[in-house]
Design goal:
Blueprint (H helix, E strand, L loop, with lengths): L1 H14 L14 E5 L4 H12 L3 E6 L2 H14 L3 E6 L7 H13 L4 E4 L14 H29 L2 E7 L10 H23 L5 E7 L5 H7 L10 H13 L4 E4 L1 H13 L1 H10 L10
Parallel strand pairs: 1-2, 1-4, 2-3, 4-5, 5-6, 6-7
Helix pairs in contact: 2-3, 2-8, 4-5, 5-6, 9-10
The structure holds NADPH dihydro-nicotinamide-adenine-dinucleotide phosphate.
NADPH dihydro-nicotinamide-adenine-dinucleotide phosphate (NDP) binds next to helix 2, strand 5 and helix 7.
């Protein structure tokens, strides 16, 4: 009985038909994208621009944001602006949301995507670094959600939280990063329950990503990891679609992440040993 049940569960898991997505559905929507100066956030901004949304982009580096905004306007964004600052500063999340409120008087989608810098190596005992990383990778997500919630309730909008497979399954050499991503799952999965129980019609989409070919990820781990990265452009589009379709979770790339999440519950030792053997530890320089 176990095999057919597992087969049925797998078939449902991978092939349950999602509602269809049309780019024009997003036309005129007001969207904040954090971490939009590079990588997946930058690609999301370009997709959203082609879909003719209003964009507010944020990150620390003004020069890069300026270029992304220019490109978004060329691609057809209904409007595009940026606000620069660091999410390490506990007051900045509210500043960003207030900018959206003052500009648009409302908000349809909040895409939380930024991360602070963390090294890819054995945990070095630096507790201060974890505190700082929690502020950037986790607390600022909570703070932005809190500030944006009145507007999102009014528009019956969406929150998109970009997380990682390292936020579902423990991963070596990324203990601090992994902790901040697990925290996102705990907080936002709990909040989703509360929204449903309280009839708050704001969706929460948690995006569980595998290895993606952004410059920073490739620079940090390509010498240590055996897997090939998935394309950031496609990843960004899948995130936008999942958020708009109000999906509970996105797993991208689907087979890699979906299988890992499934194995985590049914064969955790096997999964852990496969994860360990996917690293070229000999290429890791201890710091
Ligand atoms: P990038 O490093 O390319 O982009 C990170 C973004 O965050 C940049 O725009 C950066 O801009 C911004 N940022 C960095 N520090 C701060 C800060 N202190 N305050 C505000 N913004 C900051 O990352 P990716 O595109 O690779 O990753 C995007 C998301 O995808 C992250 O949530 C990541 O965890 C997730 N992910 C990525 C994977 C991958 O393999 N690439 C795998 C799994 C998950 P600036 O420096 O200008 O501030």
């Amino acid at each position: 009985i176990f095999i057919p049940l597992l087969g049925a569960a797998l078939a449902f898991y991978f092939y349950s038909a999602p509602p269809s997505f049309k780019e024009e559905m997003l036309r005129g929507k007001r969207v904040i994208v954090t971490g939009a100066s590079s990588g997946i956030g930058e690609q999301m901004a370009y997709h959203l621009a082609r879909m003719e949304t209003h964009l507010l982009l944020t990150a620390r580096t003004e020069a890069k944001l300026q270029k992304v905004v220019e490109q978004c306007l060329e691609l057809g964004a209904a409007s595009a602006r940026y606000i620069s600052g660091s999410m390490e500063d506990p007051s900045f999340p509210e500043v960003v949301v207030r900018e959206a409120e003052n500009t648009w008087g409302g908000l349809d989608m909040l895409i939380l995507n930024h991360i602070g810098h963390s090294t890819f190596n054995y945990f070095d005992g630096n507790v201060g670094h974890i505190r700082k990383l929690l502020e950037t990778n986790f607390l600022s997500y909570v703070a932005m959600t809190t500030s944006a919630l009145p507007m999102l309730k009014e528009s019956e909008g969406s929150i998109v939280v970009v997380s990682s497979l390292a936020g579902k399954v423990g991963s070596p050499f990324a203990a601090s990063y992994s902790a901040t991503k697990f925290a996102l799952d705990g907080f936002f999965s709990s909040l989703r329950h509360e929204f449903i129980m309280d009839k708050v019609n704001v969706s929460i989409t948690l995006c569980i990503l595998g290895y993606i070919n952004t410059e920073s990820a490739v620079r940090a781990i390509s010498h240590v990891i055996r897997d090939k990265p998935a394309p950031k452009e496609e990843c960004a589009l899948e995130i936008v679609k999942a958020g708009f379709l109000r999906q509970r979770e996105l797993h991208y790339p689907p087979w890699v992440v979906g299988t890992a999440v499934l194995l985590r519950d049914i064969a955790p030792e096997f999964l852990d040993s496969s994860i360990r053997s996917s690293y070229r530890v000999e290429n890791l320089k201890r710091t």
